Each structure stands twice: as structure tokens, then as C-alpha cells.
Prior knowledge:
This protein has helices spanning 69-82, 89-104, 108-111, 115-143, 148-154, 172-185, 187-190, 198-205, 231-242, 253-258, 282-289, 302-308, 310-323, 358-366, 373-378, 428-431, 437-465, 468-471; strands at residues 61-62, 163-168, 220-226, 268-274, 295-299, 329-335, 341-343, 355-357, 384-399, 414-427. The chain is of the alpha/beta class.
Amino acid sequence: xxxxxxxxxxxxxxxxxxxxxxxxxxxxxxxxxxxxxxxxxxxxxxxxxxxxxxxxxxxxxxxxxxxxxxxxxxxxxxxxxxxxxxxxxxxxxxxxxxxxxxxxxxxxxxxxxxxxxxxxxxxxxxxxxxxxxxxxxxxxxxxxxxxxxxxxxxxxxxxxxxxxxxxxxxxxxxxxxxxxxxxxxxxxxxxxxxxxxxxxxxxxxxxxxxxxxxxxxxxxxxxxxxxxxxxxxxxxxxxxxxxxxxxxxxxxxxxxxxxxxxxxxxxxxxxxxxxxxxxxxxxxxxxxxxxxxxxxxxxxxxxxxxxxxxxxxxxxxxxxxxxxxxxxxxxxxxxxxxxxxxxxxxxxxxxxxxxxxxxxxxxxxxxxxxxxxxxxxxxxxxxxxxxxxxxxxxxxxxxxxxxxxxxxxxxxxxxxxxxxxxxxxxxxxxxxxxxxxxxxxxxxxxxxxxxxxxxxxxxxxxxxxxxxxxxxxxxx
Length: 476
């Protein structure tokens, strides 16, 4: 027998071919169960959570240019002459970088704790904001000509009553924006006169004799409140508004005759109060606002307040409602887009923080709240309470600067969200609507943060009152 002859006991490797057409492959696995997911020790892995889809940013509407370009040029000139350091931007970069680093870390005290930081901040960012705010305020005046606050700003109110503005969290941008608005709305009474330049000669001779009776009556009172001390910056800007521009010795006689200050001295008065606005009580807010109708502003500050504490900011807005007299207006302006989302402060470590649009949080704090059905049935329907009514709601407005504007530091277009409210009295039954899911969620977040704050306070009180052994293992 040869080496490769088949032995008698050997069998074909694959057996005899079957006569049928049946499937001859391995048994199929169960559908939907991959090979690597079989076995008793396998634990089904949870699918990772998909990131939340970002909110669609509405297409911005372009803000109408109401103020003339010449007025905007004069405003920028006041910034440039008031702060000569604006002509050397390279020297400001280290200070600006310190401010950016502090703001990124939410260390507002370090960012605005020095006068040099406030001046650098004013030079870099206030001019763009001033121009945007001034155009926005002028546009609002065209929309609400019948409001008593607007009538006092325009000068059409009955009697010589000065307009009042309360800027909560306000600084250089708000002060300059309202000054420019006053010059535009009441140019004949507020704008500086060319003959005012003679005061420089009289002051140098010590013979200035302007009587109090000839001084113009104030047309606008601007009250500013902020945690940072803007006193020095505001004083310099106020002086710049009342001082005619410095002319060259080669200036023509026509230029010298037309030279005038931005505003007449005394037409715009301002007061500044350094205070944490979240800590202001209702009585403090009443004292700041007053009893007469006033225009209240929260410009580019509300987002920061919500970041500090959602519960404290909500409580502050509700106290503000109780302190605001009828006929007033509340203007809220902030950045549009992604910057308007605030993470909830009660999120656990490692969990993805839930974000809420700022306008939703604002409406939750100011607009009427839902209540239970049985409370509606028990009410007699005759009671009324104060509430805010939304007059203007612009989720995204784009302010484009005129290309003819020049400034040593770069200027930027701004995209803003604008919300304007006014107080009103409405019957309770007409106020309350069915609760929305997102409103209920926000209420839960605020209540949780309030309970956490109360727990910390109670723990501190227990440590003061009880002996240490009694506190071991205790939970509040």
C-alpha cells in the first residue's frame, strides 16, 4: 500500500454530500444580540447621554439708527480726551489681560477692585456699549412716546420735571449713554454753548462770577448702583462732558467760535452708590427708586447675577417689583445667544448642569405666577395685586456701528436681547394661567437652592448654641 492510499478505517472529512438543499452552515445567533454580548457575566452597558441640543438662536433684527453719526463721534471724542491712555493701547494689554482672567474665574472683586482696572475696562469696552445703549434708548423713546418716563426724557411732560434714571449695576457705559441721549432729545436746552469756552479765561483769572440763578436747571438725574467703585471714572467723564474740546493753537476763528462742551454744566446730575444690589432690601430699593416714575435699567448685569445665585437674583427681582412706583419702566439688556444660558446651581458634582435661557428666568421672576385650582375657586375675583407687564420682547437685536466712527481702540458690533417691563394692577383671576413645565422646573431649582442656603445657616447656628458632642452625627 502506498503512502497516500486511503485506509480502510478512514472517513471523508466532510461526510457524504446531502441530497437536500437545506442550510448547512452554523446555527444563526439570535437577532439583536451581538456575539460579544453573550454570557452570564455580561452587564448591559447604558447608552451615553446625548448632549442637549443647543437652543436655536433667533435671527437678529437690526437695531434702527436713530442718533446721528456726528453725535456718536462726539461721544467717542469724550472718551478719548478723558482717558489719554486710550492712545497707547499696547500699554493697556497687560491690565486688560488681568481683567479677562479675573472675569473668566468669576472673581469680580479682583477684576474691578482697582481704579486703573476700571479705567482700562472703560477704555476698552465702554465705548461700544455706550453707542449701542444710546441707540437702543433712542429707539425705545420712539416706541413708547406716551409713557411718563419717556415724556420726561424727551422734555414733553407737563411742568419742568427732571427725568430720573436708576441704573442697577451701572457704570460708565450707562452714564455716557444717557448723557448722549439727553443731548439728542433736548439739544436746545442740554447741549453746550460756544460762549462757554470763555470760562477757561475767567477761571484762570479767578474772576468767574456765574450766579446760581443763571445756572440751568437739571433735566436728568442718573442714579447708579454697583458693587465696584466707579466714583473716579464717573467724575472724570462728567468733567469731560462739561469741558469744551482742546483746540490746536492753529485752529481757525470759525472753529474756536463753534467750540462747545458736550453738555451744559448742571443739566445732567449723577449720584453713585457702591452696594451689592442682591443684598438691597425692599426699603433700600424704595429709597433708591423714589416715589416718582423712573426708568430702571439692568444692562449687561443680570447674567452675572444669575451666575452668582439664581435664588438671590429671583428674590431681588421680586423685591424690585414691590419698590417700583406705577408709571415706571424696567429695561433689561444683556448679550444674546449662548451667553444667555445659566447653569443651575444645585447640580451635583459630575452631573451635567442644566441650563435655562435667561429670558425664561426673568419672566418667571417678574410675570404673574400660576396657582392651584382650589385657590382660584376660593378667590372672590375682586382682589388685585401689582405685577409686571412685558412691553417689548426682542430676543436678538444687532447693532451695527457706522463705518465712519474712529477710535484708538477697536469697536465692536453688539447683539443684544432686550426686555422692557412696566408695573400694572391686574385682577388675580386674570393673572394666573396654567403652569408650564419649564416654569415648574425653574421653581423647583430655586426652592432647592433656598433650602441648601437655609441648611448652611442652621448648621452654623447649631455649632454656636450646642456643645460639640451633641453635634456628632447630627443632620439638619
